[in-house]
Write a structure and sequence with these properties.
The protein contains four helices and no strands. It is an all-alpha fold. The chain has one domain. The relative contact order is 0.23. The model has no long low-confidence stretch (mean pLDDT 91).
């Protein structure tokens, strides 16, 4: 784990995913650069991965890249 880096807020990530999910901004902020680039180039894989991410953020199934839960 990287020390000093606080996990992102669950509500912030949910809002970003809902509004800018097709650009993968929430994935970049969570530390998933590779998936963020994929989402940026494919429009969130035509919106499907964006919807899956939104649900996973709300249910707590998607964590930060370093394993921390969203705050």
């Amino acid at each position: 784990m990287s020390e000093g880096k606080k996990p992102q807020s669950k509500s912030t990530m949910a809002i970003l995913c809902f509004l800018l999910g097709g650009l993968g901004i929430h994935r970049f902020m969570m530390g998933y650069t590779g998936i963020g680039i994929l989402m940026l180039l494919t429009g969130g894989v035509c919106g499907i991965l964006t919807l899956v991410d939104f649900i996973r953020i709300l249910t707590g199934g998607l964590k930060m890249a370093d394993g921390q839960d969203l705050a």
